[in-house]
Amino acid sequence: MNFNHLLLTSIPQKEKLISYGFEKRDDFFILKKSLNQDFYAQIVFSEKEFKAEVFETETDEKYFLVDVKTAHGAFVNSIRSMAKDLMNEIAKDCFINTDVKSLYIDFLEKELSVKGDYPWEGDNTSAVYRCKKQKWFALVMKIKFKNLGLESEEPVWAVNLKADANEIPNLIDKKSIFPAYHMNKKYWITVVLTSVTDFEKLKKLTLQSRELVETS
Fold this sequence. Notes:
This protein has 216 residues and is α+β, with helices and mostly antiparallel strands. The protein has 5 helices and 11 strands, in the order E-H-E-E-E-E-H-E-H-E-E-E-H-E-E-H.
């Protein structure tokens, strides 16, 4: 079970992973933890992945059904739920959340002197920020990781920005910057606010977006 999306919203604290029970091996951490008397999870964490594999306690054989998307039923769903709860617990106890949405909104309102408006009826989460021409240069929205091509239904705050079409291929890293969600991917990008590690870069991208919209 892949939980890489948690790496986009949090910074791992390696000393806390050790305290939790993880064992350091070369360039990754590993933990074996019981889910119930019949199953256990083996969790692997590295800079590139955060995953859980479920095994039967008696035979040490991998329980593959939890990774089969079409496999449903009360039993397999309960095992998935236990593994998911464990991974969320580890994220809560051993990671620091890096949500910068409030900081970004503060930047838009105070430094750029723009207030967001909500143009879509019934949607009070998607706010657009407009330049002097009243065309929007930033769309702050809550979407799901799966909208960005990741395997998760978890919601995340993101912003759509206009960017130089020639620069976009080099900007996309699929960690914090993705091809635009619901916009023309040739000219727009989506930045996941909860995974931004360089706030100054985000500010520059926002200023560039406003300039590109104003001059278009």
